[in-house]
């Protein structure tokens, strides 16, 4: 059974329609990435699938009792709310202190258990949010631009961890990401969104779809060339781009 | 002992203080100060309607306060800025209440008491209702504490964990309306929000966990109630403002002391 299935769904905020004609399903264990320009409804789609947004039309069917680990795009904790990282991780479901500490160690912030959430840096905060999501032992891990605020090594470690966790828990991963390079190499399926699903499929299929090219234009040619270059060693006509690296 | 009006007023005030700690913490965390004001301002209209239809003031005030809060919640999703909706409803409710009261000569004389609190007003049977209402609010806060906290930090995060943030907001709104009803006699409609915000704000610099902030808020509100009512009795000042001025003094002390550290 699918984890989540959307059938001809629309989402509206007041009179403004942000999504329409959305039909898709998420299967256990697959990594699906949503790409699309600003305002294309990526976050709305994610909120819809995890149950945070009600559809204005159509229906969303979730597997009963689906465990979702969610890392929202924006979460600012008001400074008026005093709460430690460790207490935050035990909100709602009481995970034992050892499980919390282990998870913090795993995302690389073991030293922050007693820190106040409001005092964390952007990168630290994203790691704590990931720990929170993973503690749910999710069947579906939903990441909305989860690498923002992380530096390059941090981002790389982040994606390695996600891959590890997927192997371990067998969870599906739904990501919104602007790291097109990573998206193209790490996803089973890519959904190209702009108010509706423009195209979807394996990274290779999507990268060649006219709809995708129309949205992302020439800017992605380099990314895709890089992708092919790294993974297939098929040196295309863009090969000359790489000579810059050798310049003194 | 209950024959002494000051003892009765203090006991009533302590009930309000106890419930105001945790509820006030949420009002501060969720930035609902103006929302609280609008709900409390509706209390005057509640008083007028209760007397006109001869129902208990507690019931009438709680019902009108809850209705006002629900109207705001319904309106704020519809394009007009939340701030503006609150301004319209808050002052609209107060104006309507004051006009309604002007038709009732009996209440007209007591208007100061309803606006600013009246320690002479608390009778023996009122005490029972006030403690009952405060216990109800406190019970609801304890029952919904975890999900409310999660929904306050992030509504989507709560939804992903099968907690309905709208339901939690509704529960908080109704608890607020109930508190407005029980606090009206002691604090008065105009200053009920102050009783929610100031103790919580005074507790903030001393607290490292949400629970500590709520508990300290209750303790600070209780202290302000006891000292404020003494002040009111001795200086013949209105009850609500006297309690609030003590709470403000405590706020200044905790803020300055923590700022120096």
What's a quick, concise take on this entry?
Chain A is α/β, with parallel strands linked by helices. Chain A is about 35% helix and about 25% strand. By secondary structure, chain B is an all-alpha fold.
Question: How does this structure look, described?
Answer:
- The complex is a heterodimer of chains A (248) and B (261).
- Chain A has 248 residues and is of the alpha/beta class.
- Helices cover 36% and strands 23% of the residues of chain A.
- Chain A has nine helices and nine strands.
- Chain A is globular and about 50 Å long.
- In chain B, helix 2 packs parallel to helix 4 (82-102) and helix 10 (192-203) runs parallel beside helix 12.
- The mean pLDDT of chain B is 90.
- Chain A binds chain B through residues 14, 47, 50-52, 65, 68-70, 72, 75, 77-78, 80-84, 87-88, 91-93, 116, 132, 136, 142, and chain B through 28-29, 31, 77-79, 146-147, 149-150, 152-163, 201, 204, 207-210, 212-213.
| Rounded radius of gyration of chain B (Å) | 18 Å
The named CATH superfamily of chain B: ABC transporter involved in vitamin B12 uptake, BtuC
Sequence of secondary-structure elements of chain B: HHHHHHHHHHHH
For the report, how would you describe the main beta sheet of chain A? 6 strands, mixed
Give the N-terminus to C-terminus distance of chain B in angstroms.
44 Å
Shape of chain A: globular
- Give the CATH topology of chain B: ABC transporter involved in vitamin B12 uptake, BtuC
Helical/strand content category of chain A: alpha/beta
How are the elements arranged and paired?
The complex is a heterodimer of chains A (248) and B (261).
Chain A: E1 4-13, E2 16-26, E3 31-35, H1 42-50, E4 57-62, E5 68-71, H2 85-89, H3 97-106, H4 122-135, E6 140-144, H5 152-169, E7 172-176, H6 180-186, E8 189-193, E9 197-201, H7 203-208, H8 210-216, H9 219-232
Helix pairs in contact in A: 3-4, 6-9
Chain B: H1 5-29, H2 33-52, H3 57-76, H4 82-102, H5 105-116, H6 124-143, H7 145-153, H8 155-160, H9 165-187, H10 192-203, H11 210-235, H12 239-260
Helix pairs in contact in B: 1-6, 1-9, 1-10, 1-11, 2-3, 2-4, 2-9, 2-10, 3-4, 3-9, 5-9, 6-9, 7-9, 10-11, 10-12, 11-12
């Amino acid at each position: 059974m699918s984890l989540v299935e959307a059938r001809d769904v629309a989402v509206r905020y007041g009179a403004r329609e942000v999504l329409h004609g959305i039909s898709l399903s998420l299967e256990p264990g697959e990594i699906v990435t949503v790409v699309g320009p600003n305002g294309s409804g990526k976050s709305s789609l994610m909120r819809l699938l995890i149950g945070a947004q009600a559809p204005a039309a159509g229906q969303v069917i979730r597997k009963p009792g689906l465990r979702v680990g969610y890392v929202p795009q924006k979460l600012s904790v008001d400074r008026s709310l005093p709460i430690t990282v460790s207490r935050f991780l035990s909100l709602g479901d009481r995970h034992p202190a050892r499980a919390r500490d282990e998870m913090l160690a795993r995302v690389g912030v073991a030293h922050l258990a007693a820190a106040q959430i409001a005092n964390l840096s952007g990168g630290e905060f994203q790691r704590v949010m990931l720990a929170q999501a993973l503690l749910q032992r999710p069947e579906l891990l939903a990441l909305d631009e989860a690498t923002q605020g992380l530096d390059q090594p941090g981002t790389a470690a982040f994606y390695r961890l996600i891959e590890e966790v997927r192997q371990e828990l067998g969870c599906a991963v739904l990501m919104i990401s602007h790291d097109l390079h990573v998206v193209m190499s790490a996803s089973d399926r890519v959904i190209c969104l702009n108010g509706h699903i423009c195209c979807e499929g394996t990274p290779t299929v999507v990268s060649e779809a006219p709809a995708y090219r129309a949205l992302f234009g020439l800017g992605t040619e380099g990314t895709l060339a890089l992708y092919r270059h790294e993974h297939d060693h098929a040196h295309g006509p863009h090969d000359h781009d790489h000579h810059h690296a050798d310049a003194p | 002992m209950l024959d002494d009006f000051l003892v009765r007023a203090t006991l009533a005030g302590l009930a309000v203080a106890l419930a105001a700690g945790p509820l006030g913490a949420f009002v501060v965390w969720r930035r609902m100060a103006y929302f609280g004001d609008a709900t409390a301002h509706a209390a005057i209209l509640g008083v007028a309607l209760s007397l006109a239809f001869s129902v208990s003031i507690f019931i009438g005030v709680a019902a009108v306060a809850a209705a006002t809060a629900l109207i705001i919640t319904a309106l704020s999703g519809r394009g007009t800025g939340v701030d503006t909706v609150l301004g319209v409803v808050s002052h609209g409710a107060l104006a309507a209440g004051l006009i309604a009261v002007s038709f009732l000569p009996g209440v007209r004389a007591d208007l100061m008491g309803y606006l600013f609190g009246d320690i002479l007003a608390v009778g023996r049977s009122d005490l029972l209702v006030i403690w009952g209402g405060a216990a109800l609010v406190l019970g609801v806060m304890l029952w919904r504490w975890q999900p409310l906290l999660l929904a306050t930090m992030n509504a989507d995060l709560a939804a992903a964990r099968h907690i309905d943030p709208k339901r939690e907001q509704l529960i908080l709104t109704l608890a607020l309306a109930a508190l407005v009803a029980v606090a009206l006699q002691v604090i008065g409609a105009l200053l009920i929000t102050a009783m929610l915000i100031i103790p919580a704000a005074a507790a903030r610099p001393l607290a490292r966990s949400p629970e500590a902030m709520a508990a300290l808020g209750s303790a600070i509100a209780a202290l302000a109630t006891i000292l404020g009512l003494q002040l009111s009795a001795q200086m013949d000042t209105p009850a609500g403002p006297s309690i609030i001025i003590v709470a403000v003094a405590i706020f200044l002390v905790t803020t300055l002391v923590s700022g120096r550290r």
